Amino acid sequence: MKDETTGQEDAAQDAEACAEALESLDQIALAEIAFDDSSVDVQDESEIEAQPDDQDAKDDGAAPTEDEAGHEESECGADDQPESDTSEETILLDSLPAEDSLTRELPGLGSAPAVDETIAMGDIPLPSVPSAHEAEARHRKMSPKRRNLMVAGAVVVALVAGGAGYAAWNGYRQEQAAIAAANAHTMMSVQIGVHAAGLDCSTGSKIPVQVSGQDSDGSSVSETLYIDEHGRGIKLLPGDYTLSIAASPIASDGTVYTVPTTKAQVTIKSDGQDLSSQAAFKLKVPSADTVTDDQIDAAAKYAEEGGASSAATAKVLQQVATARRDAAVNAVSAQKAQAARDADARHKATDLYQLDIPVEWYGKVETWQNGSTLCIYLAGDSDTPIVTLVAVREGESFTPDEGDTVLGAANLGNGYTVYASGPVYPYVVPQTINGRTQNPVSTYPMDSAIELVELTTGNRYTYSQIKNVLVGKDGKADAATKLETDYLAQILLPSIKAQD
């Protein structure tokens, strides 16, 4: 009778434990978990039949001990007891005595009494491990339904553990998705490449950049942003964009730049991204006199809209840019006017031909004229002619003055030829300075000697080179003569034309 009561209590406690587990998973029906009772019973019976009765008297014919005999009797008694009906196995916890509900007896472990937490660990008796024989006996005593309930409890625990893992993974994924969504709606600062010589945006205006494209939300973007001379200042949502320079900035000295026409495709993914390898713009400095009013007005417009610290600052920069352009235009005009005057002064004419004094000679030479003869001499020294031009009718001969050499000729095409003659200064001057007087025209101060050599060679050689290398001490003038004749053939003779 005691064993029967104990079995009923075990069944009730097991039923309650499983009911609580099943209730935590929204009342999972045991019917959804298929168990085959017959297979379990058959397995149990086959295992029992496989064992020899009484262990074949322990294989040695020895009589069982008193304890063993008593144990076998208890087993036989348990086997003879009929299984408890369903109502006995599903007794609710509230029908049990109060002391039983406080110290639940677990299968194989007995009831666990409450202990004081201050008891030393050595004082706590450890549960004994059942022997294989005891475990087998308990397994034989356990009904199929009870085993099914225990299996269901294990499944419930597994489902709970699996659900907790899935919940953790799902929470991580949701957190990452939230971070990505937050980044997709966060403005990102990026840097592009830019070069504008002399630009300091702290004193001038910033560079306007036209931005168009689509952000990560799929929204179209078209706006003007401003960057400094280092390419910083753009803030956009992640997305794909096209960048271009909208207009020139204005430097503090009024410099207006040539705007590049290039465009750059960029993709913004993260904050602080350096896009200088994908988007680089070079703003060149044009000649100030070529800057137009439209360029200045466009630069001032963007400066006022955001490139400058204020509208008043933008207005001042516009005025400075205009003044710089006007000054450059005036300077160029003055230069052109002077060049025209110089050209007129360099232009010489006789009754048969006209010519232009070489630019390299202008201001350093003067001329005298007599009919169709024109003499070009060293400024301030009419006794030092550089070249003399004489027109000779075709068929007539020409003989230069004593000490001069024919340096070239130009056919006018009207029956006359103009001959150019004069001293070979790259040869004569060094000879004279050295005291060698082979038919010298005269003696020359060193300053005049150097200038005469430079004028007749076009500054291609210095006096020292002429003296020490081309002429030397051998007295030959071929190399020096060729220098002068080649130069005159390039700069003077081509300008000699017949008079209109």
Jot down its keywords.
500 residues; alpha+beta; 5-stranded antiparallel β-sheet; 4-stranded antiparallel β-sheet; 14 helices; 19% strand
The counted number of beta strands is: 19
Distance between the termini: 154 Å
How would you sum up the major sheet?
5 strands, antiparallel
CA-atom Rg in angstroms: 58 Å
Q: What structural class is derived from the secondary structure elements? A: alpha+beta
Hey, roughly how much beta strand do the residues contain?
A: 15-25%
Query: What percent of the residues sit in helical stretches (DSSP H or I)?
Result: 40-55%
Shape: elongated
Low-confidence stretches: 25-122, 436-441
Helix count from the secondary structure assignment: 14
Task: Provide the spatial order of strands within the biggest beta sheet.
Answer: 14-15-16-18-17
Rounded average pLDDT: 75
Write up this protein.
This protein has helices spanning 2-24, 37-50, 54-61, 66-80, 86-89, 98-102, 132-141, 144-184, 293-307, 311-346, 425-433, 446-457, 463-471, 478-491; strands at 105-106, 110-111, 188-191, 193-196, 207-215, 220-227, 232-236, 239-245, 264-268, 273-274, 280-283, 347-349, 353-356, 365-370, 373-378, 385-393, 405-411, 416-422, 497-498. The chain is an alpha+beta fold. The strands form 6 sheets. It has a 5-stranded antiparallel beta sheet with strand order 14-15-16-18-17. β5 and β6 (220-227) form a beta hairpin. Residues 25-122 and 436-441 have low confidence and may be disordered.
